[in-house]
User: Which sequence fits this backbone?
């Protein structure tokens, strides 16, 4: 069956290496052909094997596991998003499938990426990590959990007219949640507020980026 990059290319979730076709087989064989890389497997689960457009191919989950060690993080996330877009497998389904597997490098890589993207901080942990960054950026102590323009906001500097929202990012936010976020941002902008939005993942794993954005914004809103 097609696998790895060739399976990904067939399913439109990635690219195969130029001039090389990836094939997986459970049958021991020493036969080699130019332009074909044979991946000999000792075992594949029944759910790892399927067809796509009547072509034998590894399943989307199996293909993403095989691809993960070959790709950088951006390319892996793009493949996950494409698999979701084409209704092959969505991130929650993928994460559940990975929970039943262990010991493979691709599984560990995908788990780490998915868990980062769905990472959430408790309210106390969020404030413990975010408030020092705001202080380093030169911002005064904000008000927290205030109602601004009919919406509850996470951090609010009324004198600077600055709002910061934080999201526990999930791959599958409902349309209603997405629409509410857009409405909230639009209302704040229309009222003349500076509105920033960070994910919990950024606050936890990318504090330097958060600090830079806050510092640049602090200089902007402090101008007379």
Assistant:
């Amino acid at each position: 069956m097609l696998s790895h990059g060739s399976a990904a290319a067939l399913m439109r979730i990635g690219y195969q290496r130029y001039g090389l076709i990836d094939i997986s087989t459970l049958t021991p064989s020493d036969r080699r052909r130019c332009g074909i890389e044979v991946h000999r497997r000792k075992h594949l689960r029944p759910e790892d094997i399927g067809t796509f457009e009547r072509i034998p191919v590894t399943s989307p989950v199996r293909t993403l596991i095989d691809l993960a060690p070959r790709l950088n993080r951006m390319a892996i996330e793009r493949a996950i998003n494409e698999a979701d877009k084409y209704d092959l497998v969505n991130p929650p389904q993928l994460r559940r499938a990975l929970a039943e597997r262990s010991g493979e490098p691709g599984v560990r890589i995908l788990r780490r990426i998915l868990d980062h993207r769905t990472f959430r901080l408790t309210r106390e942990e969020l404030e413990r990590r975010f408030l020092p960054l705001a202080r380093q950026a030169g911002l005064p102590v904000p008000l927290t959990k205030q109602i601004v323009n009919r919406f509850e906001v996470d951090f609010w500097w009324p004198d600077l007219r600055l709002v910061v929202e934080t999201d526990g990012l999930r791959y599958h936010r409902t349309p209603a949640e997405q629409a509410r976020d857009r409405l909230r941002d639009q209302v704040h902008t229309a009222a003349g507020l500076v509105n920033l939005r960070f994910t919990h993942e950024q606050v936890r794993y990318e504090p330097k980026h958060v600090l830079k954005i806050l510092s640049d914004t602090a200089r902007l809103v402090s101008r007379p």
In short: The beta strands are 21-25, 36-40, 49-52, 55-58, 143-148, 151-157, 162-167, 194-199.
